[in-house]
Specification:
Elements lengths: L1 H16 L4 E4 L9 H16 L3 E4 L13 H12 L5 E2 L11 H6 L4 H9 L3 E4 L3 H13 L23 H9 L5 E4 L6 E6 L3 E6 L7 E3 L7 H11 L4 E5 L6 H11 L7 E5 L2 E2 L9 H7 L8 E2 L6 E2 L2 H4 L3 H9 L14 H7 L10 E2 L2 H14 L2 H11 L4 H4 L3 H11 L8 H5 L12 H7 L4 H13 L6 H15 L3 H13 L7 H8 L1 H15 L1
The chain binds one RNA strand of 76 nucleotides through helix 6, strand 7, helix 8, strand 14 and helix 14.
Length: about 525
RNA sequence: GCCGCGUUCGUCUAGGGGUCCAGGACGCCGCCCUUUCACGGCGGUAGCACGGGUUCAAAUCCCGUACGCGGUACCA
């Protein structure tokens, strides 16, 4: 047995080695793409790029009842924002399209494969009504069957082309009776495959259901469409979420039933993304509850009009978002944590993807964004502020070089772009009021007089640079025989209204002599 | 219930029999730097789910238990 497995694995290895790597991301347009979905797309993308392969986007919309307006456009936009760009697929063209299953169905691409299975006695027609199915499951449960299924045993008591006579089946079909096509899972077989992340996964066929492959509405189910499309699109590796692991053996069996086992893709089932507190997978609700987005982009439900926040709108950089996602389930095995997309491609491998679900940590996510913000040049940050935050009045009221200098001053204490103009609002216009606590602690009776003297010193400066202001300030302290902590907070209070912030001399220099003196004068008269 | 997958600091994780009285990062705490806040530096807190094996030696291998998650649809 061991020898057999080894041989099988070796054969598989060779058969996929000489094929160009082709992977696909295949979401259903049933709503906005969840960050877990984006991560699946990302891992597919990284794997494809790493191996000079293709990354395709396929839309799996076989369930017409769950179609949501705008969801497909959302998927496209989200991937674009993240820089996870398909080089083939829906919206990108390619030789093996269409890339949308509803359109493929129009071309009748699926029915013939179901027919092939029917002809080879590997699938059968079933006429059972939903009520009959429910009844069967109930009866089996009552009879003490632990896992009621439509399988090799129970199928004999149902209405299908295995249990019914040929004449009866033909009559029903001719009559137009609704039917589905079910896969005929063999009764006693061990089905195994080697998952790239989990190793050997083995399930006995008695635990598999005779799943519906073709629905009575004429649409294939996911199971059929997925296998047929992956085969027709020459997919070499199926990288998807762990929720698919239970049906993977059935998919493996389907490849065998079709006679496609030699080109069957490899599987990698990704660990789930879990909610930050407690257990269970990350859901839309958790974001609302804990105050962080679970979607890449903001989304408004077309029916309920309910708005879900997005990483983009919250101020996350796409590079940071990708970096965050990459580290939820994968790590490079080194101490490096900040990775560009290129570096991720270079380092990515399934050997370093974990098996256990990863709890999402919003704090760590913020930290990543901060790292990216700090690593950008002042000019780049100014550009991004102007491009993405035109709702902020301040940034439009100054020249860009000035804005860039503000960014330089503020970026080390900010996490998001918008923090800069908010926390540094006083660099754009005088503060509305003075920080009460600082006034109480620092503004004494003699403060006004002291600041007037200091203003005179500033007035006499010819060069109003940070260095000159500092120099002048030092000699002022010496002259007055005062400590820096007595005087500087007053200066800061007058110019910024705050008790904290970046270097006071840099602030004064940035504001300029005239503005600095004006603020001092106004402040002194207000505070007395 | 049944089937499958999983389980190292609060969180993300390194670790694939000895070099681990378990390393890094986020968070938290303390100290230093600083007018202040932040940054930075230094230090600290805290973990191998449990029980049996195997072995001279186990976080690492095997079995079991517990717990968690996923699946159990004519949804994907």
């Amino acid at each position: 047995m061991v020898t057999l497995n080894f041989t099988f694995a070796a054969l598989k290895f060779y058969s996929t080695m000489d094929r160009k790597v082709r992977v696909r991301f295949a979401p259903s347009p049933t709503g906005p793409l969840h960050m877990g979905g984006v991560r699946t797309a990302l891992y597919n993308y990284l794997f494809a790029k790493k191996h000079d392969g293709d990354f395709l986007l396929r839309i799996e919309d076989t369930d017409q009842t769950r179609y949501v307006e705008g969801a497909e456009a959302y998927i496209q936009e989200a991937l674009k924002w993240c820089g996870i760009l398909p080089n083939e697929g829906q919206g990108y063209g390619g030789d093996v399209g269409p890339y949308k299953q509803s359109e493929r169905k129009e071309q009748d691409l699926y029915r013939k494969y179901a027919q092939q299975l029917l002809d080879e006695d590997k699938a059968y027609y079933a006429f059972d009504t939903p009520e009959e199915l429910e009844q069967m499951r109930e009866d089996l449960k009552k009879a003490g069957v632990a896992a009621p299924q439509y399988n090799a045993i129970s199928r004999m008591r149902m209405k299908n082309s295995v249990s019914l006579s040929t004449e009866e089946v033909e009559k029903r079909i001719a009559n137009g009776d609704p039917y589905v096509i079910r896969i005929k899972i063999p009764r006693n077989e061990e089905i195994k495959f080697k998952d790239m992340i989990r190793g050997w996964v083995s399930v006995h066929s008695s635990n598999l259901d005779d799943k519906v492959l073709y629905k009575s509405d004429g649409m294939p189910t996911y199971h059929l469409a997925n296998i047929v499309d992956d085969h027709l699109m020459n997919i070499t590796h199926v990288i998807r979420g762990e929720e698919w692991l239970p049906s993977a053996p059935m998919h493996v069996y389907l490849y065998e039933a079709f006679g496609w086992e030699n080109t069957r893709p490899e599987f990698a089932h990704l660990p789930l993304l879990l909610k930050p507190d407690g257990n269970g997978k990350l859901s839309k609700r958790d974001g609302d509850r804990l105050g962080f987005p679970v979607f890449p982009l903001e989304w408004q439900d077309p029916e309920t009009k309910e708005v879900s926040s997005g990483y983009r709108e919250k101020g996350y950089f796409p590079e940071a978002f990708v970096n965050i996602l990459a580290f939820l389930g994968w790590n490079p095995g080194t101490n490096q944590e900040v990775f560009s997309m290129e570096e991720l491609i270079e380092s990515f491998s399934f050997e370093r993807v974990g098996k256990a679900g990863a709890k999402y940590d919003p704090d760590k996510a913020r930290w990543f964004n901060q790292q990216y913000l700090r690593s950008k040049s002042n000019e780049a940050i100014a550009d991004e502020l102007l491009a993405f935050h035109d709702e902020i009045e301040e940034i439009k009221q100054v020249e860009k070089p000035y804005l860039a200098e503000v960014c330089g001053l503020m970026k080390e204490r900010a996490t998001f772009l918008a923090d800069i103009p908010r926390e540094g609002a006083y660099l754009f216009h005088p503060a509305d009021d003075f920080d009460e606590k600082t006034v109480r602690k620092k503004w004494k009776e003699d403060s006004a007089g002291l600041m007037e003297e200091w203003a005179d010193e500033l007035e006499s400066l010819n060069e109003f640079t940070a260095e000159k202001v500092e120099e002048s300030f030092k000699s002022f302290l010496e002259k007055k025989e005062l400590g820096i902590g007595r005087v500087l907070p007053l200066f800061r209070l007058l110019l910024t209204g705050q008790g904290m912030g970046p270097s006071m001399f840099a602030i004064a220099a940035l504001l300029g002599k005239e503005e600095s003196l004006k603020r001092m004068k106004n402040g002194i008269s207000t505070l007395g």
